[in-house]
Fold this sequence. Notes:
By secondary structure, this protein is an alpha/beta fold.
Amino acid sequence: MDIKTDTPVTVIGLGRMGQALAGAFLKAGHPTTVWNRTASKAAQLVSAGAQLAPTVDDALKASPLTVICVTDYPAMRQLLGGNDISLNGTTLINVTSGDSAQAREAARWAEGRGARYLDGAIMAVPPAIGTAEAVILHSGPQPDFEAHRPTLDALGTVSYLGADHGLASLYDVAGLAMMWSVLNAWLQGTALLKTAGVDAATYAPFARQIAAGVAEWLPGYAEQIDRGSFPAEVSALETDVQAMAHLIEESEAVGVNAELPKLIKAMADRGVAAGHGGEQYPVLIEEFAKPHVS
Ligand SMILES: NC(=O)c1ccc[n+]([C@@H]2O[C@H](COP(=O)([O-])OP(=O)(O)OC[C@H]3O[C@@H](n4cnc5c(N)ncnc54)[C@H](OP(=O)(O)O)[C@@H]3O)[C@@H](O)[C@H]2O)c1
């Protein structure tokens, strides 16, 4: 990431994240053109060497690659949708957050107007941009990603996921599901232990060890899911369900919120009712892979 390069790049959208992206390109030595609806937000970047384009069209024409980072997809469409704007021949990387359907639709729209389009997802906060800690995911045509990878490397740890434009958004939300599930489980345990006077800092190292141990199971469990076969090698779902009942009882007995344990058990109960009690936990993928009917 210390490699300096002369490849020009444009950043459209200079909110908190867009400013960090443009700043990282500048720091890596890229001639950087910027545009923002509220032009005053470009002031700091301009004093650091960025060029402020007077119009969106000028911004797009200034570089072979434009990274766009605005609030949402409708904002992206609104600002690129004008008849006076040509996307022909430009490569757009849209790192605006959204869902996979929006990403695929944006790709069709941009490609229909002559652009090359990659969708991106930023799994980092602005201060991390430009460091290896910033994980930035991309999906769309691989040759377009590879052509601009040396420029994108200025932003952090960039990865390519596949040709389906929706993949970056899907990985993004999958990561969020993991993050909130782990945090909620930790908060549940912390609330339980607080009832016995154990503070959060005392429990945290233990919780971390448990989370790391469970993470070790994932590759083996993933193999079971991909094979569609769930032999109870270490534990059966019906045994887990009994422990879930203890978690609910304990939470209720000590006056702690039992919503999360009840949700966990309700899904496992459905798995048992469907005849999977003797199989291993990842068989619950069958519950997760279909809509919930209440
Ligand atoms: N901040 C983070 O930690 C973070 C992390 C990961 C991903 N992201 C994603 O990055 C994207 C931007 O986030 P942010 O934190 O930079 O947001 P922000 O600070 O609120 O900035 C929003 C940007 O969108 C522009 N914008 C909104 N509506 C527009 C429109 N109709 N036409 C033109 N420009 C419009 C704003 O322009 P004005 O300045 O003129 O209002 C501004 O440049 C979001 O999709 C967010 O989910 C952010």
